[in-house]
Amino acid sequence: MASRATDRNRTKFLLDEKDIPSKWYNIQADLKTPAPPVLHPSTKQPIGPQDLAPLFPMELIKQEVSRERWIAIPEEIREVYRLWRPSPLYRARRLEKMLGTPARIYYKYEGVSPAGSHKPNTAVAQAYYNKKEKVSRLSTETGAGQWGSALSLACQLFGLQCKVYMVKVSYQQKPYRRIMMETWGAQVVASPSPDTQSGKKILEQDPNSPGSLGIAISEAVEDAATRDDTKYSLGSVLNHVLMHQTVIGLEAKKQLEKADDAADIVIGCAGGGSNFAGLSFPFAADKLAGKNKKMRIVAVEPAACPSLTKGKYVYDFGDTVGLTPLVKMHTLGHTFIPAPLHAGGLRYHGMAPLVCKLYDEGVIEAMAVPQLATFQAAMQFARTEGIIPAPESAHAVRVAIDEALRCKRDGKRQTILFNLSGHGHFDLGAYEAYLAGKLQDYEYPAAKVAEALTQVPKVTA
Amino acid sequence: MASRATDRNRTKFLLDEKDIPSKWYNIQADLKTPAPPVLHPSTKQPIGPQDLAPLFPMELIKQEVSRERWIAIPEEIREVYRLWRPSPLYRARRLEKMLGTPARIYYKYEGVSPAGSHKPNTAVAQAYYNKKEKVSRLSTETGAGQWGSALSLACQLFGLQCKVYMVKVSYQQKPYRRIMMETWGAQVVASPSPDTQSGKKILEQDPNSPGSLGIAISEAVEDAATRDDTKYSLGSVLNHVLMHQTVIGLEAKKQLEKADDAADIVIGCAGGGSNFAGLSFPFAADKLAGKNKKMRIVAVEPAACPSLTKGKYVYDFGDTVGLTPLVKMHTLGHTFIPAPLHAGGLRYHGMAPLVCKLYDEGVIEAMAVPQLATFQAAMQFARTEGIIPAPESAHAVRVAIDEALRCKRDGKRQTILFNLSGHGHFDLGAYEAYLAGKLQDYEYPAAKVAEALTQVPKVTA
């Protein structure tokens, strides 16, 4: 009992390297009904593995549709994970004290990876499986640069070449993220680029195009589809990407046990859904098994881009241009262009199909929060816990603080766990705008969303 | 034996929170002869505690001259240390493999602190003792911003106001470091500023002055000397600062024991000397006690600013203007202005007196390395271990790699330990210059140093 009391008093709950999970958790095994199939964009019939083979290695295609509960993590991947995993679980004692809440607040900190976010958890796995299947080069897109830097690092560690199409406006505004990718050996070009037909076409129409994630995806996919040595890599949304991220939640569960505690509320920000799923799916497993029924799992999205809370649960394209297969998800319409939020990683019109399915079934809930409120929360966090959160992660901080204040009002000693998915070292321009009173909120663009939803393709289920 | 074998195979050697040192190590207790006294700049007689009282709280003045071997770390300071300490010790397995060396390379990683370097180890202690003695505001100077951000964080955590005089050229070129300080609540001004007499005077002569560390020190000292609520805080050089940093080496010794290993070579970069001393003094203690006589301890400085390897061991001013007390140290002359190296933290004309004393007695050695070679080493490190080193820390990486390659040539299985004192997230501009082939080396400016050394005040010992 004495040792337990000591444990509870800690600030950090660390695990040993041997506690790095040896298996990823695949939530598809525990769904009551399978996730809706992915459809071919022209035939609107379910697609097969061969349709995806030009873009992804076979092992990842298998993982995408697997219904095995546990997928073994190869030792070569765990060896790279050791560079930063297990990541720490923190008890936010200073934040609790400042809020005067009886709640216990924990955060899992994924910013300890060399790239500064959770993204390398899947980048490393994807690079490994491609390498194993003799792929020598990966292409991808990146917006603000979190994903591009994670994949650059992973490719460097496995000796793969990496080509990153970086949205031109970010390429110009965030040179440090680009340099980080180049330091890890990647080739980075501003998108639209003259390197692809898609890029050339857009540049002909508009030489000054600022680019978009949709355009960059088109370029990266074309690059992979037209070169034998190259496959494509995606940083969120897909089932296998979410599964690779479950190391976060699997570790967090063990760490909460060390703290002799259990989560009442699990919180993650959600753009494509991967960091949210990574933390929460191992907890959702308990709910799906009929345990911990009262536990709440909350996805937090921007009020200006609220796919779960305001979108429609229909088949839609994953990209803006409309080249990808159709997936059933909560969507604001694939032609919807979100406001220029600083949380670039949350500016996505859709949401991972597996997250949508759990939301549809009531296993998880969702909240939307405005930008200013997220920075206000991030400042409170930085000034008590020290770490400066990424603008995306600040969405989770906001709801964690709100729930802690609710506990204070209601006199409840609940346990709140959230994912601090990354640090804000490359986002300090956003903090400057906040401190200068220049940061703005964006209204929910109801008319634009309604218009975009009319563009969603008709699919008879 | 089995568990030992497992330990040796790890990548990270972590300690528990209860292993955060409870005492700092004060090397003054173990010197055969005391360090030369600090002298009053006009009388050239040893100064007493009252001379320093306007600038520092009494507890820090006591620590500065203490000959007690161990100074207890107050629980309030250890509580803040828990936010990132104990810091990890890494075995650089991927770097070793890439080099093909039989040497074992370990690095202590101090970049895990919220400010990204070792600097908060003393910032937190200094903020605490000032708070305890009812000081409500601290002033300091910062060049590139590592120290300023560490003190801003520490002041925020203890509820002190913080005013940072940031060298104007850095203020303009490194806005992210400034925003980081402001996020933690500090007031940051470009130096020279109109806020002090020293600043005004310089601005009158040259309204476009780019500033210098010397000018910023003058402003910060004047600020503290002219306000009752304010004291001054320094991030390196002084005995108490070096002592606060010994938590690094004390932890590293325990971690090497966990690895069932012992250091043959201990390496740190040295500007003012605090991260080098922090890692190495607990190891130097063994040598001073007649143990581990063959162990080498190496301070690494820039070839363009080589105070230990090329400077004179004489009394000199700590600042450029010549306002501070006189300390006996290896110096290039207080009027020497180093080349604009990217390793801004190593651009100092002198060296911590305690480091100089150990160098003079042959307990430690020193090496000087050129800028390009340090970035070449940093690239090799980033591409194997993932972490992108600060340009200062890259000096230690360079010598660690050189020693590992020597071991390879000689077929020796030595154990190399170095301090990775910080990450390079705010220094990627330097990496960009390196990648673009635009980074240059600077010759050792022998004539300028000879000239500056003529300005050193005459003191008859």
Structural class by secondary-structure content of chain A: alpha/beta
Radius of gyration of chain A: 21 Å
The general outline of chain A is globular
Do you know the CATH topology of the domain at 79-116 and 240-453 in chain A?
A: Rossmann fold
Going across the biggest sheet of chain A, name each strand in turn.
1-4-5-15-10-11-14
If you had to describe this structure to a student in words, what would you say it looks like?
- 2 copies of one chain form a homodimer.
- The first copy, chain A, has a domain at 79-116 and 240-453: Rossmann fold (3-Layer(aba) Sandwich).
- By secondary structure, chain A is an alpha/beta fold.
- Chain A contains 20 helices and 15 strands.
- In chain A, α17 crosses α18.
- The first copy, chain A, has helices at 2-8, 49-52, 58-65, 75-81, 93-99, 120-132, 146-158, 168-173, 175-183, 197-205, 213-225, 239-244, 247-258, 274-288, 307-310, 353-360, 371-385, 391-410, 428-435, 446-453, and strands spanning 12-13, 23-25, 70-72, 89-91, 104-109, 137-142, 161-167, 187-191, 230-232, 265-269, 296-302, 312-317, 326-331, 365-369, 415-420.
- In chain A, α14 links the parallel β10 and β11.
- Helices cover 42% and strands 16% of the residues of chain A.
- The radius of gyration of chain A is 21 Å and the shape is globular.
- At the A-B interface, α7, α9, α17 and α19 of A face α7, α9, α17 and α19 of B.
